[in-house]
Here is the input.
Amino acid sequence: MNSLKKILKQFAFPYKKEFFTGIFFNILYSLFSIVSVISIMPILDMLLGGSVKQKETLTHVKEQASDSFFSELKYEFYLFLQQNIVEIGAKTFLAYLCVAVILLFLLRNIFRYFAQYFIVLLRSGVSKDLRIAMYNKILSLPVSYFTDRKKGDIMVRLSGDVGEVEGNVLNAILELWRTPFSIMFTLAALLTINPSLTLIALIVLPFMAWIISSIGKSLKKDAKRGLAESGNVLSIIDETLNGAKIIKIFNAEESMKNRFLNSVVYLRRLSINMMKKYELASPSSEFLGSVAMIFITWYGGVLILEGKGLDLASFLIYIALFFQLLEPAKTLSTSLTNLHKGTASTDRLIETLESNIQIYEPENPIVLTEFKESIEFKNINFQYQEEHPILRDITMTIPKGKTVAIVGQSGSGKTTLANLLARFYDVSGGKILIDKHDLRDLSLKSYRKLLGMVTQESILFNDTVANNIRLSKPNASMDEVINAAKVANALEFIEQLPNGFDTSIGEGGGKLSGGQKQRIAIARAILKNPPIMILDEATSALDTQSERLVQEALENLMSNRTSLVIAHRLSTIINADMIIVMERGQIMEQGTHAELIEKNGIYKNLIDMQNFS
Here is the structure.
């Protein structure tokens, strides 16, 4: 329940005005639900020929007035009604009573509407704030957080878990505030009409509460497993959509079908378990309520037959009120079940919201507004897991305005080095210095304003061409966007698109070729105009024609900038100021292209393997 308290304190407390206003109208609704039913009693009495209509039977009520408050109140009220019947006539007065009952029911439903209105304000507000907080948290989390988790699980937390809080948890809490008032008002009315009959209801209610509490506690574990498996299902769907070509070319449909089938079958089993327990609550409470109803009918019938202070009209109203008592009692039990089930979602949400960011800033970080001197890697060591080093004792310097290329076999640590410079991860040992400042002492936001990045996989969004380019500089003018596209060799193909810069490129830029996507990514980096550029194998996935166009764009991009280039195709980095050759996480060689060729070492072997000299 700690996670629930945290969610309520952080997200529900700002809406306390809506909460208490909704509760106030709910209390009025509960009160008028009782009053509106009781108001039917004199009508029934008149129609059944009771005390209101027959003056002589009112004496019997008078005789019992000393026995109970209800009898005294009933006597005075019926005396008032009888006097009015004499004055205006029974038919006319019956019409007045019916109008009064209609007005009471109208007020009851008006209060219900306002109660629901303010509850909707609360629920929608909490849901909005919770989704925003979750999304902002996800944006703030480091890259390492997402490598350990399934995308589908994160999506379920943003949608399913937040929906559970809005739809069930908040409703349950509101009902736990409202239904006790409804139960108290109803019990008060029942006790007023006949205390001995009401004792039966008081005996049944604790049994109902015990049954529901037992069911609710066992639901939480199944709910947690179900939410996790829902995330797994979404992850499989996401992988299927992203890897459709690979699945088809390798005839892997059956393998994917089996994987998906196993997941949904397990999810169904969990859902059935939850349903069996959840649906057991209502029938159990309803059965106990029915048993109580039969005892009340028997005992009430005995009192009427023996003439012991209970007339038929009062008994009928008592039955109606008891049925009204069963509904909030069932609602209360269901709310307790939903609350136990919903805490599985609040646990998962708090787990994400309180996740360790891992990339820390000092209390007073250094704000870097420009890059002046150099980037230095000093004795850098890094490992994702203990005893599995990725980088070992990396030391090098990139002077301002120079291009340094990193080459080596796959798994040598090239991309990891770029990720450390972008501070997606922090070094395990050593320092990265930017103008003599430790990278960990800088304001991350101000530092990343100095960075641009183009990766092998072009990351584009389901938006227009212009908005994808403008992502790096949201307030850029259209002229700036066009100029960036021109420098990136992208203007020609963009102008040939159906709507030019306003053309939507689809999810992940699916409507564009690889070379076109890459040039838009380069245009985005050019528009930002950062002093430091990271190029992570930006041409390795392209054909020769696209590579030539992209390479020209990259040369334009790197002009007068400090660049760290990770290269797979060595033909693209022969003009670099410095080439670093890495192997198994260590620097093995460094120098210019000509110097490394002359050494006739690892770099020369790489060149020979690519048939380049």
